[in-house]
Amino acid sequence: MLPDGKMYALLTRPQNKSGLKPLPVVIIGNGPSGICLSYLLSGYTPYFKRDSLHPHPILQKKLEEARDVSILDQDLEYLSEGLEGRSHSPVALLFDTLQRPDTDFGGTAESVLTWWHETDRAIPHVVLGRNAPGGAWHSIEGSMVTLSRGEWMGLPDLPFKEWLKQKKRGLRNNRATAEDIAQYYQHYVVKKGLQKNFRCSTVVTSVRKVSADSISNHTQEDQQENSDDSLWNFNEKSTEVFQVDGFFKTMKGDKEPLSIYAENVVLATGTYDSPTWLGVKGENLSYVHHQLSALEEAVKNNIIGIMSDPVLIVGAGLTAADAILFAHHCNIPVVHVFRRKVSDPGLIFNQLPKMMYPEYHKVHQMMKEQSAACAGPYECYVSLPEHHVLSFGKDKKCIFQDKNGHQKVHKISMALVLTGSNPNLSFLPNNGIDLAMNSSQPVNPKRNPIDVDPFTYESTQEKGLYALGPLAGDNFVRFVQGGALAVASSLLKKANKNPP
Question: Does position 232 have pLDDT exceeding 70, yes or no?
Fold first, then answer.
């Protein structure tokens, strides 16, 4: 990474200079979505590989119609028409099936894409992120195993399995650890030469539209060398640009302000930032936590142990399951509270193959067999399905209520509320609510994502603003890459009025 001084110089606004040239693209978020988009904007261009045979005959025919035209320059709506799979996004399905043609059927067919590095097609951009490249993957406990198959965690033109082999490690039950994934994403950025685009330890505090005329006295340097050779030409007629404000955290812990003007902004911040709260009395007490790491720290520091009062775990998703497994491994007693029935088909455990996810199947068994009403074979664990928390007391007594209105009281040592997380879009006007599908509710990746055009991922409410990954409803790494393809295609078509 560049030294602090240079980074600051690149991202602040020297005063009283003319010749402003806003950066074409600012990407906020440096997880898999941001990394993949940076790769595509750096001139890496996908073409249909000659003599390749895709198992989908109609898609094969369409690909053969324009063999010499980059996928980025083709009609993505036409190519993705008729594709089916595990995503609601047609472009996500398209890019996924081009990279992993028969993966959903257990096949190992090679990608039908070949990649060319066409530097004249690069679009100057910067990727801003709080952590090292990889985003929230650096905040997840390293030994946690991914839900998705390991090969689905890879990014274009560098298979994850190949990287893992070089590290002389393999996949466990076809899945990878969070530590491996985080290291792979950092390696990918270096291997593909993308470092110059990344500004880590950066927090964005505001994104807003401003008049192009109002910034005529400011300038900023392009962060890429040779950007004049790029095909990108700033639209002189543009009357508005985005102003992105925030700060950079130096090695000494100081905060250096930054301000960037950009013609386009891409939101790729994910949803790990703001854990969901229950909104009940006492939830702000010091023994109530909203992240699994709190339990790990408590065990590490011997605050919680075998003889402690039970740990309360609220939620019935995979993070709650990870907490139960961790506590079970450490012989720590657990009271597990969740709203659904154990047999509810919407429960994630009822959707996972038992053979591929044995540890989660074990948690599901515990939830079924070890309820308070019926003692089961698992010591130190009590399941309370169809219950919810009413309040947390200062004396560490927690009150629950079941579906019939009956209340129970449990003395606990600590509580983990693990009921999901929401994106932190506080840097946008009105927290980004106006951009959502339902503009009367906060943005939520599953229930209320940002409303985007399905083939460009540009906001339907704000031109020049794009959303990627969970913010746009794509919640798995294998599918966020299609959104990056759509954004890159849209930006290239804006830059080049006459694509092939």
Answer: no
**Other beta carbons less than 10 A from residue 495's beta carbon:** 19
Query: Which one-letter DSSP state was computed for residue 111?
Result: P
Q: How many CA atoms lie within 13 A of 257 on its CB side?
A: 5
Q: Other CB atoms closer than 10 Å to residue 167's CB: what's the count? A: 11
DSSP 248: E
User: pLDDT digits over 370-391, tens only?
Assistant: 775 555 566 789 999 999 999 9
Q: Which is nearest to 486 in space by CA: 50, 120, 96, 2? A: 96
State both tokens at 425. Answer: 């879009």
Q: CB–CB of 336/387 below 8 Å? A: no
Cα 470 to Cα 473: distance, rounded to the nearest angstrom? 5
**CB hemisphere CA count around 147 (13 angstroms):** 15
Round to whole Å and give the CA distance between 346 and 351.
8
Residue 47 DSSP label = E
Nearest to 241 by CA among 10, 21, 87: 21
Residue pair 206/258 in contact by the 8 Å Cβ criterion: no
Tokens of 69: 């035209």
CB contact at 8 A, 127 and 197: yes
Query: Quick one: residue 201, left, alpha or beta (phi over 0 = left, psi -120 to 50 = alpha)?
Result: left
Q: What is the pTM of this model?
A: 0.80
Q: What is the pLDDT of residues 408-417, one digit of tens each?
A: 999 999 999 9
What phi, psi does 432 have (nearest 5°)?
80, 5
Q: Which two three-digit tokens encode residue 406?
A: 């009956």
CA distances from 86 to 94, 138, 224, 474 (A): 11, 26, 37, 10
Those residues whose C-beta lies under 8 Å from the C-beta of residue 212, and which sit 6 or more positions away, are 22, 238, 239, 240, 241
Tokens of 271: 């949803």
- In whole angstroms, give the CA distance from residue 361 to residue 57: 37
Query: CA angle, 182 as apex, 179 and 187 as ends, to 5°?
Result: 120
Q: Kindly tell me if the per-residue pLDDT of 125 is higher than 90.
A: yes
Amino acid at 292: L
Alpha-carbon gap, residue 232 to 469, rounded angstroms: 25
Flag whether pLDDT at 171 surpasses 70: no
Structure tokens at 135: 């985003």
Retrieve residue 432's tokens. 């980004």
Q: What is the largest CA-CA distance in the chain?
A: 76
Residue 211 pLDDT class (50, 70, 90 cuts): confident
Residue 372: predicted pLDDT: 59
pLDDT of 15 above 80: no
Give the position of tokens 């928390």. Answer: 389
Q: How far apart are CA 121 and CA 51, in angstroms?
A: 25
